[in-house]
Amino acid sequence: MTIRTIVTGAVVVAGLTLSSVPVLAQQQAPQQHSEIAPAAAANAPEGNEVKYTNAELIPLTVHQAWLKSGKSEDVFFDMVTQLAELSAQNRNLELPQTAAAGRRVGEMIKLMAKEDTDQLLYAVVDAAVRKVGTPLPAVAPAK
């Protein structure tokens, strides 16, 4: 199960104030589904669902991702969470599932994103995942 914790406090990302910053954790099993449907999409009329594939998210800068989210904190949070899960999966890492680790990841993402809103959001998220992730246990090959 993916655990998402929100670090509270005002944060400026992409030149806009966000009242929350995502904090991330990795699923125990590799994620097979590469699209997100934010909670806000549940109330959207049918046919207007907001979903992004990994291929759509990876090339976005921090600022572009914020605009693509419709300036929605919930959607942006889902984008960051999806990218963190992808990064952890690709790097065979597990993200710690503690509030302290979540705050650490959130702070790293905030600082890096504020430094340059024209950098790729995936690069920001990937750097944070690499710092806090731990290698998944090796699985013995089936005989």
Write the layout of secondary structure elements.
Elements (H helix, E strand, L loop, with lengths): L4 E9 L2 E8 L30 H4 L4 H7 L4 H18 L2 E2 L4 H17 L5 H12 L1 E2 L8
Antiparallel strand pairs: 1-2, 3-4
Helix pairs in contact: 3-5, 4-5
Molecular structure report:
- Helix content is 41%, strand content 15%.
- It has 143 residues and is of the alpha+beta class.
- It contains five helices and four strands.
- The chain has one domain (5-24, 34-135).
- The two termini are 29 Å apart.
Distance between the termini: 29 Å
Helix share bin: 40-55%
Q: Low-confidence stretches at least 5 residues in length (pLDDT < 50)?
A: 1-48
Beta strand count: 4
Strand arrangement, major sheet? 1-2
Total discrete domains: 1
Strand content: 5-15%
Mean pLDDT: 74
- Global outline: globular
Number of helices: 5
Order of helices and strands: EEHHHEHHE
Task: Look at the helices and sheets and give the structural class.
Answer: alpha+beta
Q: What characterizes the major β-sheet?
A: 2 strands, antiparallel
